[in-house]
Amino acid sequence: MKTAKLIALLLILQLTLSAQYFPKEEYYSKPVVWLGLDFTLTQFKNPFDFPPGEELQRRYMPGWNEMIIIEPDKYNIRKFLKNENISYSLTEVNAFNEQIDPAQIFSEEKELLTLEKLEEDVSKYENGKDELAVMMYVVSFNKTIPRGTFYFVVIDRSSGRLMFVEKVSADPGGFGLRNYWLGSYHRALKQLRYRMREWRR
Fold it and tell me: What local confidence, expressed as pLDDT, does residue 56 receive?
């Protein structure tokens, strides 16, 4: 039992160390694509603060992702992530979000997203391309705290390997459910913009 726990801790440590250095050389020399917001492993805390699961999946998830198109100046991923050469492709993330079982969205058995699970999950995205992918996994939306929590990740698309992870949490705010959680998303992007200055050094 102790041996199994030790192995698990070593695996977590290995992943943490392997994903803590921002790959700035590749980030500015290779094509980079923004995939969007992945909700497949998200915990939506307290179902009474949200619409039914099916509405959340079919209306709100794609709506939150489409803000880069609807309000490109406010949700300017290239500006926030300090790379004018980032392209956008929401096709994959939208397809995975559409596969979510609405009945399981508020399941109390859903485990909190860990780094181990994250490394496993990013492999579902298309690989074999000589480019990097950047995206955000939504860890949780919790109105009780209130707080939105995200994992910003960088993926090596040639191998499907998770290259970098940064956890970001931000307060929500805004009128209506859509704008309320967009507030958290927008503030998280602002945090990434400031952190990117350090990572680029």
Answer: 97
